[in-house]
Write a structure and sequence with these properties.
- By secondary structure, the protein is an alpha/beta fold.
- It has one domain: Rossmann fold.
- It is built from seven helices and 14 strands.
- It has a seven-stranded parallel β-sheet with strand order 5-4-3-8-11-13-14, sandwiched between helices.
Length: 201
């Protein structure tokens, strides 16, 4: 384990550059489908992650959307779109996830209200729900979900059945899972039987 202020993370956690190169097509399809749910004039939060960050790329054509994020990747995509109003959470910068975390970020998030929160995960199962490798990331997801009308989990199909180090949210707290067509029929059936809404793209 590598110690960090406010928590620890596994030394083998993949860098964000490595994760950006994985399942590229599926991640873009998921992000595009997620962006289609955003309305003109919406207020949304986008949590740090390689799939979630891509949502900002597909907001072209949307008008007067307020985007709150703890992700420098989201910022890099969103800043070139003049129709987006961007709020950065502030906080302690984590290079391994290109994210801002910690008390400052959590206080900023807690003081805001949005319609949609787009969040990611390192793994999800019916038994454990959403899980991640990083304690600080789990805190951000919980905070975003708490101040959003709807929480949308964006996760490619390879994440299903995997369990990370830290519990984040039960799937019952997620309003919809958006994943790719690679999710096995058995897994989709399990989710549907548990009343978890799931969209495949």
């Amino acid at each position: 384990m590598i110690r960090s202020r406010g928590g620890a993370y596994p030394a083998l956690h993949q860098s964000i550059v490595e994760r950006q190169q994985q399942n590229i097509e599926a991640k873009n399809r998921i992000a595009r489908a997620a962006a289609e749910l955003v309305h003109d004039g919406d207020r949304i939060m986008i949590e740090a992650g390689t799939t979630t960050a891509l949502v900002a790329r597909y907001l072209i054509g949307k008008r007067e959307v307020q985007v709150v994020t703890n992700s420098t990747l989201v910022f890099s995509y969103a800043r070139i779109n003049p129709a987006l109003q961007i709020t950065l959470t502030g906080g302690e910068f984590r290079r391994e996830t290109e994210s801002m975390v910690g008390p400052v970020a959590l206080r900023t998030i807690a003081g805001l209200n949005v319609r949609l929160a787009f969040v990611g995960t390192d793994g999800f199962t019916l038994e454990k729900g959403m899980t991640t490798q990083l304690v600080e990331g789990a805190e951000i997801v919980k905070a975003m979900s708490a101040c959003a009308e709807k929480t949308l989990l964006l996760a490619d199909s390879t994440k299903y059945g995997k369990t990370g180090f830290v519990n984040v949210l039960p799937l019952s707290r997620v309003d919809k899972v958006i994943t790719d067509s690679g999710l096995e029929a058995r897994a989709l059936r399990e989710l549907e039987e548990a009343s978890i809404k799931c969209t495949q793209v």
